[in-house]
Automatic annotation (TrEMBL):
Family (UniProt): Belongs to the glycosyl hydrolase 3 family.
UniProt keywords, alphabetically: Hydrolase, Signal
Example GO molecular function: alpha-L-arabinofuranosidase activity
Annotated Gene3D superfamilies: Glycoside hydrolase family 3 C-terminal domain (3.40.50.1700), Glycoside hydrolase, family 3, N-terminal domain (3.20.20.300), Immunoglobulins (2.60.40.10)
Domain PA14 positions: 464-616
Record-level GO BP terms: arabinan catabolic process; xylan catabolic process
Top-level lineage group: Bacteria
Name of this chain's protein: Beta-glucosidase
Span of the signal peptide: 1-21
Length: 888
């Protein structure tokens, strides 16, 4: 059957012209060009949009776009996430958090990771289409990667980025974008959406009204290069404009960003989506417009095509009032549908090569192995006095700390749900044996922040020798009849977003009951709580929602003491002794619920005492300390010492964890510190007193395995820091100051704890003197820089070869700048020549007016495994004559 006949057969629909709304017209490729797959996406989109009414067009400009049955347009939810794995759509391969992926300094690995994410995203879409599922997070337009510059360690969302450096961020962003979108010449695998364009990196509390004031130099030199690369080189099909304003104009209404740079300079031909409710913020937050109609008009005219939100409902009024023209609306909707046509959404079934992808492509053994490789490569060894790798394979290990067995501390945020996540505690027990790994949390993460109740304080019943609680799973609707599944859960700390918790239990709505006993370690005051997505902190019993269904009930000693209708969802309990207390939780899960935790805030001293007693029994103490996505993240209601609204006010360890570390240090045992976080944590005490320090970030589903393998030497660490570890916030400018002066390694002038690009290995490497293909070039000519690297140790390992350029000094010049890196594997004794090409952009600088030039003068080029020391004797010099202006 030819294409025309096929389309006539399967796609014959009733089309109505805007003039004759009641006259049906049988659509064929001859009469309705948008059905002809031989035409370009732009031509098909233009034809389709020409057949829509004003209201139909407006309806398509918001993320929850309804169906238009008369035109055969199905409903579509534009909002999907894939930061480091397909997110919020059930089981998916969970890779290390973005900052950890950046720490690999491995662009080839990044491309493979993005290929897997793209494949799993398309497979999930195909499965959703077959099931008639058009919910959020089931589409093909993914709002990733986050390529904002992590300019200040206090920003809670820095974990989502590729770090502080424009070059590293650009290279990682390009590979991520290419992997997500695939390499088919006609169809996109997914749509990638670099975000948040632009100059967006905190403070979270102010983001809906914040105005970032920046110089033309900093805009072009720091904040825009990664976006330019993702558009010009990565060919991203979409981009997301940010919440903040720049120099008084909201980003989603900025013609400077969306027209001058994006479309004029970078030749972007895709569509622009707003961050969620940022069009509404043009009016409500920034007060840049008088109402939604004016906010919508100014945003659409500037180039924002799609509103994540509902402010664009006012576009019909804006058009009728003459605030924006119908032709301008047409252009936006045409861009959106051109994107859908590029994804193959309106092509005959089976004609898109990605249609064959199915559930069998998700969470495969190969994908899991790649997640483990990524976790291994992401680990950064910050200190090692020779204790690592652990030589005594029969050593007893004490795993101490609040992140040793915390699911969130490996999964990160904006994450997929790992099928079989491996926490550090589980990884150590698999590596060393259950009997030789002792465990005690020692503290909670931070004062006032509850933590999952550890298994040793729970038991299924008074006679059981096991720890944990009995879990019974039931069908949606209640707790009657025989359970669908029964098991013992060591603790209640799960991520069940669209996943089945046990065999035979549906992945959507279900009920679960946990029963057993809580055994307090000491008499005293405790806080108990249960956390799930439906948790409310402001329930008003007089409101209209007073009788909304309960999602959980907590029983203590057979009395209901807490539910999610309580005004305060933390229960103060005073235990007068250490006798067991019956505990029961009944929880009604809905498909979209995410983390589920039975939590407490216990008295601090018994937790510490137990940890010290446990450590005394061990040969080696491994302290797992740091942060979690419950402390740092996007616009969060967290206000405790050191944390505010998702951001941080201090960059050291929370006080309770610092105290734990110092008390462990007094024992005289070998002390290894494993730092889990999405950002820098200043740990000068650990650097001085611990035997080894390993930065693990939020390492993904196989993080525990990678950490354990690194401690034993099965994995030789080679990750590098994608951010500077400063000593204190007092060394930094104000958080709200977006000027780059004295920020990041490129402009910071003082001493630091660990520099950008730093990382140790179990191998040692020796560098020869770098050479250039020619010592002098004219501006615009490409020069090649080569260096010989040799593994001088008996241990095979990876080395990250880094090239830094120090340009001729101007008032705006950076101290130095990364302009090349390669991660190479070298066997024991092996040597290799590594070559980097440097073009005009790599050798260029941005002046105070924001113009980029390659300038005449002497350039210093240093190549090594880290930043060069002042007066690097291996550096080479390049003389450039002439001057070349480069496009923005």
């Amino acid at each position: 059957m030819n294409v025309t006949s096929y389309v006539v057969l399967l796609f014959t629909i009733s089309c109505f012209s805007s003039a004759l709304a009641q006259t049906p017209i049988a659509c064929t490729p001859a009469t309705c060009a948008y059905l002809n797959p031989e035409l370009t996406p732009v031509a098909r989109a233009k034809d389709l949009v020409s057949r829509m009414t004003l209201q139909e067009e407006v309806s398509q400009t918001m993320n929850a776009a309804p169906a238009i049955p008369r035109l055969g347009v199905p409903s579509y939810e534009w909002w999907s996430e894939a930061l480091h794995g397909v997110a919020r759509a059930g089981v998916a391969t969970n890779f290390p958090q973005s900052i950890g992926l950046a720490a690999t300094f491995d662009t080839g690995l990044m491309r493979q990771v993005a290929d897997v994410i793209g494949t799993e995203g398309r497979a999930k879409y195909n499965e959703a289409q077959r099931a008639g599922d058009h919910r959020r997070f089931s589409g093909l337009t993914f709002w990733s990667p986050n390529i904002n510059i992590f300019r200040d360690p206090r920003w809670g969302r820095g974990q989502e980025t590729f770090g502080e450096d424009p070059f590293l961020t650009a290279r990682m962003g390009v590979e991520f974008t290419r992997g997500l979108q695939g390499d088919d010449p006609k169809f996109l695998l997914l749509v990638a959406t670099p975000k948040h364009y632009a100059v967006h990196s905190g403070p979270e509390q102010d983001r809906h009204h914040f105005n970032a004031q920046i110089s033309d130099h900093d805009l072009e030199d720091t904040y825009l290069p990664a976006f330019r690369a993702s558009i010009v080189e990565g060919r991203a099909a979409s981009i997301m404009c940010a919440y903040n304003a720049i120099d008084g104009k909201p980003a989603c209404a900025s013609d400077m960003l969306l027209q001058k740079h994006l479309r004029d300079a970078w030749k972007f031909d895709g569509f622009v989506v707003s961050d969620c409710d940022s069009v509404a913020d043009v009016y409500r937050g920034h007060h840049f417009a008088s109402d939604d109609a004016h906010a919508s008009a100014v945003s659409l005219k500037a180039g924002t095509d799609l509103d994540c939100g509902s402010a664009y409902r006012a576009l019909a009024l804006a058009v009728k009032s003459g605030l924006v023209s119908k032709a301008e609306l047409d252009i936006a909707v045409e861009r959106l549908f051109a994107g859908r046509f590029r994804l193959g959404m309106f092509d005959p079934p089976g004609s898109v090569p990605y249609d064959r992808l199915s559930a069998s492509s998700i969470d495969t053994p190969a994908n899991r192995e790649l997640a483990l490789r990524a976790a291994r490569e992401s680990l950064v060894l910050l200190k090692n006095d020779g204790i690592l790798p652990i030589k005594n394979k029969d050593a007893t290990i004490a795993a101490i700390g609040p992140t040793a067995d915390l699911l969130e501390a490996i999964e990160g945020n904006y994450n997929g749900e790992a099928a079989e996540p491996v926490t550090p505690l589980l990884g150590l027990r698999r590596e060393f044996g259950v009997d030789r790994v002792l465990y005690a949390p020692g503290s909670i993460l931070a004062a006032g922040l509850p933590a999952p109740i550890p298994s040793q304080y729970l038991r299924p019943d008074e006679k059981s020798m096991r720890t944990g609680l009995k879990a019974e799973f039931f069908a949606d609707g209640g707790f009657t009849g025989q359970p669908l599944a029964t098991r013992i859960d060591a603790k209640v700390n799960f991520d069940w977003n669209r996943v089945s918790p046990a065999s035979g239990v549906p992945p959507g709505n279900f009920a679960v009951r946990w029963t057993g006993e809580l055994v307090p370690p000491i008499a005293g005051e405790y806080m108990l709580s249960f956390r799930c997505i439906k948790r409310s902190t402001t329930y008003d019993p007089t409101s209209a929602t007073a009788h909304s269904p309960l999602h959980y009930r907590l029983y203590l000693d057979d009395k209901e003491v807490l539910d999610d209708h309580a005004r305060y969802q933390d229960l103060k309990v005073v235990f007068n002794d250490t006798k067991p207390h019956a505990i029961r939780v009944e929880y009604m899960h809905s498909s979209e619920d995410r983390f589920v935790d039975l939590e407490w805030q216990p008295p601090a001293q018994p937790m510490l005492d137990e940890a010290l007693a446990t450590a005394r029994k061990a040969d080696v103490v491994v302290a797992f300390v740091g942060l979690s996505p419950n402390l740092e993240g996007e616009e969060m209601p967290v206000y405790t010492e050191g944390f505010a609204g998702g951001d941080r006010t201090m960059i050291g360890l929370p006080a309770v964890q610092q105290h734990l570390l110092e008390e462990l240090g007094k024992l005289g045992k070998p002390l290894l510190v494993v730092l889990t976080s999405g950002s820098e944590v200043s740990i000068p005490w650990a650097q001085e007193h611990a035997n080894a320090v390993l930065a693990a970030w939020y390492p993904g589903e196989s993080g525990g395995t990678a950490i354990a393998e690194t401690l034993t030497g099965k994995n030789n660490p080679a990750g590098r820091l994608p951010v500077t570890f400063y000593r204190s916030v007092t060394d930094l400018p104000e958080f709200s100051d977006y000027a780059m002066a004295n920020r990041t390694y490129r402009y910071f002038q003082g001493p630091v704890l660990y520099p950008f690009g730093f990382g140790l290995s179990y191998s040692t490497f020796e560098y020869g003197k770098a050479s250039v293909s020619q010592p002098a070039v004219r501006a615009g000519e490409v020069v090649k820089v080569s260096v010989n690297v040799r593994n001088t140790s008996p241990v095979a390992g990876d080395e990250v070869v880094q090239l830094y350029v120090t340009p001729p000094r101007t008032p705006e010049s950076p101290r130095l700048a990364l302009e090349g890196f390669q991660r190479v594997h070298l066997a024991a004794g092996e040597s290799r020549d590594v070559t980097f090409p440097l073009d005009a952009r790599a050798l260029s600088e941005v002046d105070r007016n924001g113009d980029r030039h390659e300038l005449p003068g002497e350039y210093t080029i240093s190549v090594g495994g880290s930043q060069p020391a002042p007066g690097d004797l291996r550096a080479v010099h390049l003389q450039v004559t002439g001057e070349l202006a480069l496009p923005r």
